[in-house]
């Protein structure tokens, strides 16, 4: 499939303004008016390339609003994106997230082209462990199954028995019917899981560089300065943060909770852009933003998405020996109820 060369930087015009007007109306609370003439030409050009490429854009909750609400066809947390990646009908999948998410999409769609707009969009948590580490853990605890958080590389998934997400980690651990598991790589999520099950959980000391920066003292300070503040936290946060929170849940669980509870004022103990994205849907809720940003997620931009689609650039491939065992671990995760 060939394309005529495109303008390097799409231009703002009355026609672009008209075509993107519905998006502008939706995003006016979270995208300043002064930024719209910059974003809109890229949005317009990306939608045209998606049609021509028969492409679908998948975006994680931590993407900025102009990506999440502007060009994404599928949005959600890691579990939802993994499930939808296996269902979508398209020739090209563009993963607006980090590298392990693109690898997961490729594992589930071996015959499709999977792109990531920036190959350097990594993950501190995924980088905290490798397959050799998993092998050493198996030597130390022979016969103990390895449950690996989906925030991990394909090589670590391939060395594991089953994957999980923060949404179904407890269910996955208990589905194995064993008294003890090795849980990788997030220590804080593992501690949260251990507090909710009778299964003994052996932990690895990996952390997310976004969530580990939250502290209980921060939350108490926010409560003091924002009376009536409702605190919602992700289980990748440290234990003292979870103890201070009014609700603890996965990325999707946090969003569902805010929808149901509809607090007047809330803080989300997670990546900052998620609050921007939920605010579009819930204008009646005031979001207090501590704004811990993920530098890896923020590597994904509209120009890079456009470039990936235009040139089919940054295709993600998984080494052949890893495909079958890694896919098996992911498929076992998907078979467990949310």
List the helices and strands and how they pair.
Blueprint: H1 14-19, H2 21-27, H3 36-53, E1 55-60, H4 65-68, E2 74-76, H5 78-85, E3 92-96, H6 99-108, E4 113-115, H7 131-140, E5 146-149, H8 154-158, E6 162-164, H9 169-175, E7 180-184, H10 187-194, E8 200-203, H11 216-225, E9 230-233, H12 239-244, E10 247-248, H13 251-261, E11 265-269, H14 272-281, E12 286-288, H15 302-311, H16 320-334
Parallel strand pairs: 1-2, 1-3, 3-4, 5-6, 5-7, 7-8, 9-10, 9-11, 11-12
Helix pairs in contact: 3-15, 5-6
Written account of the structure:
The chain is an alpha/beta fold and 338 residues long. The protein is built from 16 helices and 12 strands. It has helices at 14-19, 21-27, 36-53, 65-68, 78-85, 99-108, 131-140, 154-158, 169-175, 187-194, 216-225, 239-244, 251-261, 272-281, 302-311, 320-334; strands spanning 55-60, 74-76, 92-96, 113-115, 146-149, 162-164, 180-184, 200-203, 230-233, 247-248, 265-269, 286-288. The strands form 3 sheets. The chain has a 4-stranded parallel β-sheet, with helices on both faces. Strands 6-5-7-8 form a 4-stranded parallel β-sheet, sandwiched between helices. Helix 3 (36-53) runs parallel beside helix 15 (302-311) and helix 5 runs parallel beside helix 6 (99-108).
């Amino acid at each position: 499939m060939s394309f005529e060369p495109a303008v390097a930087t799409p231009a703002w015009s009355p026609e672009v303004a008209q075509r993107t007007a519905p998006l502008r109306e939706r995003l006016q609370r979270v995208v300043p008016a002064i930024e719209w003439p910059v974003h809109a030409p890229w949005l317009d050009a990306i939608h045209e390339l998606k049609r021509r490429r028969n492409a679908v854009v998948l975006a994680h909750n931590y993407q900025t609003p102009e990506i999440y609400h502007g060009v994404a066809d599928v949005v959600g947390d890691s579990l939802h994106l993994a499930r939808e990646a296996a269902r979508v009908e398209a020739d090209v999948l563009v993963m607006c997230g980090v590298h392990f998410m693109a690898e997961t999409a490729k594992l589930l769609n071996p015959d499709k082209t999977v792109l990531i707009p920036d190959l350097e969009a990594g993950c501190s948590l995924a980088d905290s462990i490798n397959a050799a580490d998993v092998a050493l853990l198996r030597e130390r605890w022979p016969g103990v199954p390895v449950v690996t958080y989906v925030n991990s590389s394909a090589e670590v998934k391939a060395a594991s028995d089953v994957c999980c997400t923060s949404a179904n980690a407890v269910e996955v651990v208990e589905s194995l019917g064993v008294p003890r598991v090795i849980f990788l790589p997030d220590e804080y999520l593992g501690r949260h899981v251990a507090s909710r099950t009778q299964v003994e959980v052996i932990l690895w000391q990996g952390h997310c560089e976004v969530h580990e920066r939250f502290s209980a003292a921060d939350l108490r300070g926010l409560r003091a300065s924002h009376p009536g503040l409702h605190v919602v936290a992700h289980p990748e946060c440290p234990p003292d943060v979870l103890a201070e929170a009014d609700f603890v849940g996965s990325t999707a669980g946090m969003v569902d909770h805010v929808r149901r509870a509809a607090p007047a004022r809330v803080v989300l103990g997670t990546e900052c852009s998620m609050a921007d994205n939920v605010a579009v849907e819930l204008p009646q809720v005031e979001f207090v933003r501590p704004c811990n940003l993920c530098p890896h997620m923020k590597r994904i931009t509209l120009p890079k998405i456009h470039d990936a689609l235009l040139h089919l650039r940054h295709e993600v491939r998984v080494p052949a020996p890893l495909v079958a065992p890694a896919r098996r671990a992911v498929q076992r995760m998907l078979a467990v109820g949310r």
